[in-house]
Amino acid sequence: MKKLLFIVPLLLFGSDKVCTKCSLNKAQMKCEYYVALKGDASKAFLCDQYADYLDKTKVYGRAAWYYLLAKKPEKAIEAANNALKLGESYANEYLAEAYLILGQKRKATEHFNKLKTRFFSDKNFKTLQKLYPNFDPKELQ
Q1: Which among 78, 82, 115 has a CA at the least distance from the CA of 70?
Q2: Mean pLDDT over residues 54-67, rounded?
Q3: Whole-angstrom Cα distance, residue 11 to residue 1?
Q4: How far from the centroid of its chain's Cα atoms is residue 24's Cα?
Q5: Mean pLDDT over residues 90-101, rounded?
Q6: What 3-state class would DSSP assign to 140?
Q7: 94 phi and psi, to 5 degrees?
Q8: DSSP string, 39-90
Q9: Which is higher by pLDDT, 36 or 23?
């Protein structure tokens, strides 16, 4: 058992090979902690790295969320529109949030009203309010 505890860290940290997925996973975890949870916009570049990866791999809905965390609402709109083309209707929430951030209330309300469920909305709103001081979800009502 003691040998296993010694070998696992060596495998994880002792390798000379670059682990792309490892660095992406680290970027995602740091984005979730520093940006989403703590509201530290200075670490938004971590979210951008992960969002770019998701966008390139056609995971557009999730990419849209991470672009919002990366403070890139224009890219979030692009990714969310791609998600809608694939039938991911939940991406309307990301479109609504991005348009609201950009001050386009009419478009924001239009997409928010297309949502069938608003299960995560309150959590997302709280997160976005930390990053965007002028973000007011009450304007979507």
Answers
A1: 78
A2: 97
A3: 16
A4: 13
A5: 95
A6: helix
A7: -65, -35
A8: --GGGHHHHHHHHHHHHHTT-HHHHHHHHHHTT-HHHHHHHHHHHHHTT-TT
A9: 36
